[in-house]
UniProtKB/TrEMBL annotation:
The gene is ispH. GO terms for biological process: dimethylallyl diphosphate biosynthetic process; isopentenyl diphosphate biosynthetic process, methylerythritol 4-phosphate pathway; terpenoid biosynthetic process. The lineage of its organism: Bacteria, Bacillati, Actinomycetota, Actinomycetes, Micrococcales. InterPro entries: LytB/IspH. CDD domains: lytB_ispH. One of its GO terms (molecular function) is metal ion binding. Isopentenyl diphosphate binds at H65, H98, H148, S246, S247, N248, S291. Residues 1-20 are annotated as: Disordered. Belongs to the IspH family. This is 4-hydroxy-3-methylbut-2-enyl diphosphate reductase.
Length: 348
């Protein structure tokens, strides 16, 4: 009987397999993001009114839909009210970026209020469209969210002609006087895709439905949605900085999920970010609504860096350089200004 010597066993070091490296964590930062020209104009209007006239300066509704901005201005002496009858007679009041109806302006005049109109010029454009189509006796279908301040202001320009259509499913309830004289206009801060679906259904019901002279959804809303659509497919998590009453911020969460992000959450500030969101997350997308100052995005990026997401790459789909002049009541109170700058990071 012959014996054989077994093959030598490998050393322990040879038997050890190298664990695969964990995927590198990174942040994709959307650009454009944050302040749009209309928001920048409105916030500066309140700042300059406080600086030029002194506190208090009253503001009807939130000047823009962002908690941090409103709290900061309140600390400086702005007093936010729901209606003009809360403003002392003869005092100064700023109308918010979302616009107001003629009835609000009349109420302010009746109380002899000194008004500063910070309505975004793009919202003013939609107001003028409503007036024009009402003058031509059209039924005006205003696509927007019932109760939103911008929608209330636009509808107030032609209350006898405007119907609010708040979703594609609401189309079946729309009734008009003459199907051959129907036009649609929209709130400026909506989801582009949902708005176009509403228009599609309206056109099925009213084949001769007319379009507004130009796109009503503002350039900033569209640009922020396009940027999120580009980065979302690569993201396990998309964080949208913005307040709950900011329509365009809420829409960004919906757009991110619809474009392929695994999860998406909206936060007012970095402190609201939760640990549970990061299980299995390699790539985080970050963006912010059009009423969000960059300081809040900076705070989110710092917190993400502390969690190991320090590699920040900007995903840019457009460059914005539009600026609006201040309300006429404030022109001459300050020198020409530069736009507010964004955080500089490496583009991809």
């Amino acid at each position: 009987m012959t014996s054989s010597t077994p093959d030598a066993l490998p050393d322990a070091a040879d038997r050890t397999t190298t664990a695969p490296e964990a995927p590198a964590r990174r942040v994709l930062l959307a650009a454009p993001r944050g302040y749009c020209a209309g928001v920048d104009r409105a916030v500066i209007a309140v700042e300059k009114a406080l600086e030029h006239y002194g506190a208090p300066v009253y503001v009807r509704k939130e000047i823009v839909h962002n908690k941090h901005v409103v709290e900061t201005l309140a600390d400086r002496g702005a007093i936010f009210v729901d209606e003009t009858d809360e403003v002392p007679e003869g005092a100064r009041v700023v109308f918010s970026a979302h616009g107001v109806s003629p009835a609000v302006k009349e109420a302010a005049a009746a109380r002899n209020l000194d008004t500063i109109d910070a309505t975004c010029p793009l919202v003013t454009k939609v107001h003028k469209e409503a007036v024009r189509f009402a003058r031509d006796d059209f039924d005006i279908l205003l696509i927007g969210h019932e109760g939103h301040e911008e929608v209330e202001g636009t509808a107030g320009e032609a209350p006898d002609h405007v119907q609010v259509v708040d979703s594609p499913d609401a189309v079946e309830d729309v009734v008009v006087r003459d199907p051959s004289k129907v036009v649609w206009i929209s709130q400026t801060t909506l989801s582009v895709d949902e708005t176009m679906e509403t228009v599609r259904r309206l056109r099925e019901k009213f084949p001769t439905l007319q379009d507004p002279p130009s796109d009503d959804i503002c350039y900033a809303t569209q640009n922020r949605q396009v940027a999120v659509k580009k980065l979302a497919p690569e993201c396990d998590l998309v964080i949208v900085v913005g307040s709950a009453n900011s329509s365009n911020s809420v829409r960004l969460v919906e757009v991110a999920l619809g474009a392929g992000a695994r999860t998406s959450y909206r936060v007012d500030r970095a402190a609201e970010i939760e640990d549970a969101w990061f299980d299995g997350v390699t790539t985080v997308g970050v963006t912010s609504g059009a009423s969000v100052p960059e300081i809040l995005v900076d705070d989110v990026l710092r917190q993400l860096a502390e969690r190991g997401y320090a590699d920040v790459q900007e995903v840019r789909t457009a460059t914005e350089d539009l600026m609006f002049s201040l309300p006429r009541e404030l022109r001459g109170t300050m020198p020409p200004r530069e736009g507010r700058r964004s955080l500089q990071v490496d583009p991809v």
